[in-house]
Amino acid sequence: MSHGHGHDHGRSAAGAHRWRLQLAFGLVAVFFVVELVVGLSSRSLALISDAGHMAADVVALGSAIVATRIATRKDTTGRRTFGSYRAEVFASGLAVLLMLGVAVYICIEAVGRIGAEAEVASGPMLVVGALGLVVNLVGVALLRGGASESLNVKGAYLEVLADTVGSVGVIAAAILVGTTGQPWWDTVVALAIALFVAVRAVMLGREVLAVLGQHAPAGMHPDEAEQALAEIVGVVEVHDLHVWTLTSGMNVATAHLVSAAARPGGDPTDTGAILTQAATVMRERFGIEHATLQVEPAGSSACAQTTW
User: Fold this and answer.
1) Which residues cross the membrane (predicted)?
2) Under a CB-based contact definition with an 8 Å cutoff, are residues 125 and 42 in contact?
């Protein structure tokens, strides 16, 4: 059984939510400039660190937008048989590196302030922190709808979510510095922001590595898929089963199905029925729409020649 291998280059989950990324990018980019200027003028490490994290947001959102454009671009070389969907996963990886970089920067700055007297203007901190909270909450609301469907959007979402926590931290630091007169609260809050950002980055990084490492999709065990295929009438064995995620929302599988119906002189309609049932099982039970399935006659030695 043969079929076309053309791909719909507008199907990616992130592509459907590109407008969310674009709007969030505009909001965050504008406020980043405001927060950086006020952070430098007020000498607030918490505010500067939050501005640094917001700069990472700008880059992450921008790369996510570019990645969705690349992913939906038609291949003109004829060599990218899976399209360019993985660009979205690479953008998520960039978001992870940026988040970790910001966390490291905050820690280095905080250590540099130990034992030093720093004048921190709590008033501007409070105002900008409150405005930043509003901007980030809008960004979170925009990206939440696509975060569960796209790893690319999820990376941007976690960036903005972490920055939302950062804005809360800036507000808390401003209040503590203003009420106690102790500028070290600014450093403590900055370190707390760094820890939160690092944890979220590691969690997202694990998901990115799972996709790049071609692990089975989250929530799916290959043994279950193999058992389901083996239960199809006419199938006597299943081997060479591979399942992986191409990009968010696009899971792929290949498998060899051994059937007595495929032997020379067997009924070809039985082979067709097996393929139809197998494709239905993969699609309806495991959410895999693109499954490449090969039916082999029992006793075939074709797979024995495979060296890996």
Assistant:
1) 21-40, 46-68, 89-111, 123-143, 155-178, 184-203
2) yes
Residue 111 in domain: yes
Does residue 305 lie in a domain region? Answer: no
State the DSSP string of 114-178.
Answer: TT------HHHHHHHHHHHHHHHHHHHHHHHHHHTT-HHHHHHHHHHHHHHHHHHHHHHHHHHHH
Query: What was the pLDDT predicted at 256?
Result: 92
Question: Does residue 174 sit within a domain?
Answer: yes
| Lowest mean pLDDT, pick from 190-199, 261-270, 295-304 | 261-270
Domain residue limits at 66: 13-212
Residues in contact with 219: Cβ distance below 8 Å, sequence separation at least 6, in sequence order = none
Output DSSP code: residue 292: E
Please give the tally of structural domains in the chain: 2
CATH number, position 255: 3.30.70.1350
Nearest partner of 15 among 96, 108, 84, judged by Cα: 84
Cα 152–157–158 angle (5° rounding)? 100
Residue 236 has pLDDT above 80, yes or no: yes
